[in-house]
Specification:
Helix content: 55-70%
Mean pLDDT: 87
Number of helices: 7
Radius of gyration: 18 Å
CATH architecture: Orthogonal Bundle
Largest sheet: 2 strands, antiparallel
Shape: globular
Number of domains: 1
CATH topology: Arc Repressor Mutant, subunit A
Length: 177
């Protein structure tokens, strides 16, 4: 087995720290919209799927995109339903499945949260050159691909990260309205 270097440990620790502090920052900012970062992520993914696909969104569409298990996503959907952010519609041919729809309240909160998130993204990346951003993006994509392979996770056609750049550009244009 290859020796783990000091740099490896430093990178491992800083990746965890960055994830934790960005999550805390996002939760602190999104509290203005009365939503958690995980709820926002679920709404964001639903909006993404709506923009790139004509098919109804069901629970199983969200699980791989959020890297969570079915129970975790189900519990989140249940809480978001109680808060009137999303709604389950039982109108699919498969009566065991429910179509998930963002409610008007959920749409309004999501729009507000998107504006707050956009400011966060600008604040975070403003001082980082485009070249450094491209380098960082390349490194993080490689890491994501490696971890997906280690965990035997398949890359998804609908993954906002690896999807068709035209679909992603279209979705970002929708978000920026």
């Amino acid at each position: 087995m290859k020796k783990v270097t000091s740099n490896n440990y430093h990178l491992w620790i800083i990746i965890h720290q960055i994830h934790d502090i960005i999550s805390k920052w996002e939760d602190a900012v999104l509290i203005e919209s009365s939503i958690t970062s995980q709820q926002f992520l679920l709404l964001w993914i639903m909006k993404y799927l709506e923009s790139i696909s004509e098919k109804p969104i069901i629970l199983t569409d969200l699980i791989p995109l959020m890297y969570r298990n079915v129970n975790s996503i189900s519990a989140m959907i249940y809480r978001m339903e109680k808060s009137n952010l999303i709604e389950r519609k039982r109108d699919l041919p498969d009566k065991r499945a429910s179509r998930l729809v963002i409610t008007e309240k959920g749409e309004n909160i999501c729009k507000s949260a998107i504006k707050l998130q956009r400011k966060m993204i600008n604040d975070l990346f403003n001082d980082i050159s485009e070249g450094d951003q491209i380098t960082l993006l390349s490194i993080l994509r490689s890491m994501k691909k490696k971890v997906n392979k280690i965990l035997n996770l398949t890359e998804l056609d609908t993954d906002p990260e690896i999807d068709d750049p035209q679909k992603t550009a279209f979705f970002l244009k929708v978000l920026n309205k």
